[in-house]
Amino acid sequence: MTEKTGWWRSAAIYQVYIRSFADGNGDGVGDLAGVRARLDHLADLGIDAIWFTPWYPSPMDDGGYDVADFREIEPLFGTLAEAEALIAEAHARGIRVIIDIVPNHCSDEHRWFQAALEAGPGSPERQRFWFRPGRGPDGGEPPNNWKSRFGGSAWTRVPDGEWYLHLYSSRQPDFNWDNPEIRTEFEDVLRFWFDRGVDGFRIDVADGLVKDPHLPDVEDGDETPFSDQEGLHEIYRSWRKIADSYGGERVLVGEMWLPDMARAARYLRRDELHSAFNFDFLVCPWDSQRFRDVIDRTLKAHDEVGAPAAWVLSNHDVTRHVTRYGRQGDTGFSFANRLHELPVDRALGTRRARAAALLTLALPGGLYVYQGEELGLWEVLDIPDELRQDPVFARTGGADPGRDGCRVPIPWSGSEPPFGFGSGGTWLPQPDSWQDYTAEAEAADPASMLSLYRDGLRLRRDLPTGSLEWLSLGEGVLAFRLGTEFTFALNFSDSPVPLPGGELLLASGPVDGELPTDTAVWLRG
């Protein structure tokens, strides 16, 4: 699925959540040394690029998304020199490097926010953020009714009486992008890392930088005043000019949870972002018609702006799809309710996850693989409350279990924790039952999830490009053709169906003349 230009148009990108990938120094926390030691795993997997979640200095209130310095490396992870060596070592293996940038907010330990607290009301330092007086006779009520996406109010009061805005944790104050100083700062941050060889940026909360300056109250969950504001397009046009000024096709990838796919696609016009995550596909429940509708809407919206689609099943914020697809009930995903209380048939979820992997690998465009997805890992639901670290859990009083369950350190080898993650323990506990799901164990098993991903990523490089043509193979069967020689089919129905004709290239499970339920195949001819 290669293109003459635009490597990102068909790239397979692997997400590394550094704290949970591999530990090189034995302190129980993943680091850059651990990643460097495991680069051959990623090269053997067959991915084209790595996306690193934030590696900047951080108090880790939100797992690194509370950044204290955008031009350095978190000491827990290593040094700037190690990051530069990692970039070079990845490039030597033909793997590009994308890093997170977090422009919506910073840590409350960032030097600018500390200066704003010290300077007081009306100061230039406070203009970098959203400081406002409160409502009510004594200013004791927040400036508006906005809610934090992590629970509770989006406003916190400081000792001098003013309030500051934080759409996430109270330790993550939002930048005021109406201030030109913020724009200049982040343009310089882009150049800093491009100069060090990174191939692109994944933009956290890409839809939320610009706020309605009047800060109006919202009704019924409407996020319009702090999402998808027109001023964002000007920012990303300026960023695109910077990216295009560097050689090697540097890219900008947006994280935008927008309800309207057509509006999201507007950010992918040729002078703005290169790509954006397809979250409608991620949250889709296990249903053939729902998947077909999402795929149709995705391809149509992206075709209208000449951008590639990007398919994703899991990431560091959502319940792993082995667990979602195995639920007895709703198999979709929503931040409003993670449904961790529902019973899970893990064997069913794994079978469906294998079929979904072949679907994402076959669809036109690029795709993202979240670390551990290639091993078939599931959401760890039984983490003791006292060990949970996600601020979502704390800010909701435990009503939302948070995201720790998809961030448990991944297993590499051995028969007991820490499963080769490092020489020490792990910052979150691993299930004992992961002994059969280590990279070492699965590499030796041709029927494993790891082998399926390796085979799929290898064969994917030769799949035809072009438009997708739907095929009718019976109710509940999702099937399409690419070009004249490739057919994909996935049976969502309750009964086996006849296997389409052609040479079998790859199957997510056993097939023998029939396509079983929850099984996908690739066929040639």
Automatic annotation (TrEMBL):
SMART domains: Aamy (SM00642). Residues 15-403 form the Glycosyl hydrolase family 13 catalytic domain. GO terms for molecular function: alpha-amylase activity. GO terms for biological process: oligosaccharide catabolic process. Coiled coil: none annotated. PANTHER family: ALPHA-AMYLASE FAMILY MEMBER, NEUTRAL AND BASIC AMINO ACID TRANSPORT PROTEIN RBAT. Belongs to the glycosyl hydrolase 13 family. This is Alpha-glucosidase. It comes from Amycolatopsis rifamycinica.
